Amino acid sequence: MCFGRIIIIFGLATLLAARPVSAAGPKQNPETYSDYGGTPDLVLSGDVTLGEDELNEMLVQMDSDVLTERVSAAASIRKNAAGSEKLFRKALWKAGNVRHRELKDVLQRAAAATNDDGGLAVALLQMTPRTPAVNVCNRIVQLLMSLHAQDTMAGYKVLLDFSGRYAGAFRGFIGELMVHAGLKALPALIYGRGSENRELHMFSVAWIREMGDPLLSEQIQGIRNSRRLAQLLEAYASVNELDAIDVTLSLANHESAIVRNAARASLDVYGRNAKWSIHREFENTFGEEPGEGDFEQWVAALYKVWDEQRDSKTAALFQKGLDAREKRQFKTMDELYRELLSMQPLSPHRAKMADGYLAYAIELESSGAHDDAIAATRMARRLSEEGSATFRKASARLEWLHAESLRNHGALDVAAYDKLRQDKSADFDAERWAQLGRSNDSEKEIRWTSVIVVSALIFLGCLLLFWRVRLRAR
């Protein structure tokens, strides 16, 4: 993986990890939340999601009699699905008034028509004639598949909530989608298992079994995403899964702040049920039985020791990164700082780390690694405190790098260089390009003036010649 991609991804994770962590942990009545109310998924900004009018246009196009138009609409919905769970929920519940028996008949015919070229969704797109039942069924399946592709708790919740609609006509298809998602969908199924809705409870139990009813140790090892692992712990706590207490306690010292906070919040929910697990862990950590006091004091003592150990480790990582920077071993510095930030996103050393990334960016630019220089500069800007000298330098350098990128592609942004020329926060060679831009503009003006004058003289000469010839002819 290239440096630029690593920095961008890690920078986003670091930025979002810096949000208040009070949202972590199981909530009472999780079904009242669109995503069960625990640790949020990493999602895109809401300003890039689909609008309701846009989705309606795509859905109308998906009812077209022309196959290519239907395929194009389905692809557009899938491509633009990110962050549109609420909109898709609304569209699903308004898909159409068709009897569930008609929908089941369409699904059976589509299932029989599936082949190696595609599954149920492709068969529904190709099915003829295009009856109202076929169109409604196609709309629903395309929306369900788009929600599945988002891989968010909010998306999985919509799938589970919809499983009972139309007398359960789409239960089998939704169950297969959940199994296909595997452990990524397991937290949502665990929430469903704890639902007061008996149909949803039985549905979730059945499809967890269909997954192979994986052991808790397999689940922990199989989930690589920190947010999804945190959601798993919260889901188990919401259903008071006592068998998950020991694993939850072990993850209360996880390197990821997201997992760590979710585990500790889940232990609060287990309450006295976690007492003996905490007692054992206290003995293993301190070599003695806990003294007088309640389990809350015992677990607080454990957290204090673990956090102190982690702080000492992150302090060592920062010092090694600092040493690497002094030796101009920037790649090593980057690796050490990334490891540190994964453990401590709100590290007190962020400002000095930002200085290191800014120095790295300058070296990358000098070596011609322009894209990587932009990525490193963005990282420096994210880590620095807004308004600080490093923040201003990083902001100015980003403008410089973007202006240089335009210039290298043949588009000179004179205004950008003029602005940078007046910026005292960094040493840019902006004067030369600003002057060059103005010189080019002046030369262009002179050339155009010359062209106009010469053209006018030629025109006058031709006009005089014309009149002279005319007079002689008379």
Structure explained in plain terms:
- By secondary structure, this protein is mainly α.
- Helix content is 70%, strand content 0%.
- The chain contains 24 helices and no strands.
- The protein has helices at residues 3-17, 52-61, 67-79, 85-93, 100-113, 120-126, 132-150, 153-162, 165-168, 171-181, 186-193, 198-210, 216-222, 226-238, 245-250, 257-270, 275-286, 295-326, 330-343, 350-366, 370-383, 389-408, 414-421, 430-473.
- Helix 5 crosses helix 6 and helix 21 (370-383) packs antiparallel against helix 22.
- The longest helix has 44 residues, at 430-473.
- The chain is flat, with a radius of gyration of 32 Å.
- The model is unreliable at 1-22 and 436-446 (pLDDT under 50).
Beta-strand content: under 5%
The description of the largest β-sheet is: none
* Secondary-structure-derived class: mainly alpha
How many β strands by DSSP?
Answer: 0
Give the termini distance in whole angstroms. 87 Å
Mean pLDDT: 83
* Poorly predicted regions: 1-22, 436-446
Q: How big is the Rg?
A: 32 Å
Name the overall outline.
flat
- What's the order of the H and E elements? HHHHHHHHHHHHHHHHHHHHHHHH
Helix proportion of residues, in percent? Answer: over 70%
The number of distinct helices, counting runs of at least 4 residues, comes to 24
